[in-house]
TrEMBL record:
Keywords: Hydrolase, Manganese, Metal-binding, Zinc. Its cofactor is Zn(2+); Mn(2+). This is Zn-dependent hydrolase. Belongs to the peptidase M20 family. Pfam families: M20_dimer, Peptidase_M20. Allantoate binds at R225, N284, R297. Residues 222-319 form the Peptidase M20 dimerisation domain. Binds 2 Zn(2+) ions per subunit.
Amino acid sequence: MHSPSPSLGQSILDAADALARFSDMEGGLTCAYLTPAHRAAAAMLAERMRAAGMQVRVDAIGNVIGRYEADPSAGPDAKVLMTGSHFDTVRNGGRYDGRLGILLPIAVVGALNEAGIRLPYHFDVVGFAEEEGLRFKTSFLASSVLAGRFDPALLARADADGITLAQALAESDLPGRGDPDALRAAAVDPATLLGFVEVHIEQGPVLLHHDLPLGIVTQIAGSSRFQVRVEGLASHAGTTPMTMRKDAAAAAAEMVLLVESRCGQAPTLVGTVGQLQVPNGSSNVIPAACHFSMDIRAGEDAVREAAIADIVAGIEAIAARRGVRAEVERVPPVNNAPCAPWLRAQFAAVLNKRGLQAFELPSGAGHDAMMMQRITDVAMLFVRCGNGGISHNPLETITAEDAQLAAEVFVDFLRHFKPR
Ligand code: HGY
Ligand code: MN
Ligand code: MN
């Protein structure tokens, strides 16, 4: 096989359309962890992996792992090059975020298999079951299990309906049903890995702006997420003087603006309040409570940590001045993850050979590769995002031509791959 069939790109887009039919919502794509749509998506991935020529297993957190067995000449101790990304989504998200990094490698394996080409290493394609943090407000559940970094305390986290992660796993069809030992045992042995490479839609406008189809990621920005609960005092909206209120929502509003202004003070630093509620609020009652999320990221961990320290201190100061209480709950942060120069160089060589620029860029979005970087060297190939680079939005798009090129580059990468 000199190059994969020219219809591979379109087939990847078609597969993303087919997978997007499983959704928790009408008229859009939401695929939250362990919902019926999520289980159906997992089953479709497993089926497609098998059809492409892989052995498939599902681990204790729900990762769907397909193995394209090494050429027999690699012997019984053949090591594993791993790829993959997540198949859960944000609420009303795009169909390529995460999924491209599973469907493209499946298509590539299918093409290799059809051409009778085996690789001198096992090639594992992982459909990571949870990355976005939508349901349990903590992200990277799936890759943290595979990387042996799962925190069992997370089993007590509840979703919006009060169902804990432990309960959801116990009621699932997954092996171990949430048994902490089974989750621990699902970790991959780092000594067996040659590395981890992830294909992902860029989710931003940089490649589009430079008129380039593909890019190589230099590093992935670290991120921290928080849930903040502000408690004030409910009282009558008509009778309580403005100077005598303990308004939780007004306090939260000041905190949101603090996040915005503090995170505007360094180049790669960003801060977002994406969820904000007045639970049980009424239009004529001063809010007794306001709950909001914070997502803070930066290219350098120290920059992020400094911003967090200032913001948490600022939240306490605002609460004290306004006579409300603020509780800041931090979910485990994920530090900045550098991509390995030797893997980046191999992607660059493949791109250059095809006459393409080996353009490098950092990732502001989080990826499963971040967690895998804790146990092995990682690299990422970004694919141009259309529609102005919009993502976490149904308007997210890629072209069949770019998917085709990415698949061809990935095939070249796999065939020329040299372990470190
Ligand atoms: O939030 C993120 O960066 C990613 O899309 N999970
Ligand atoms: Mn995402
Ligand atoms: Mn993603």
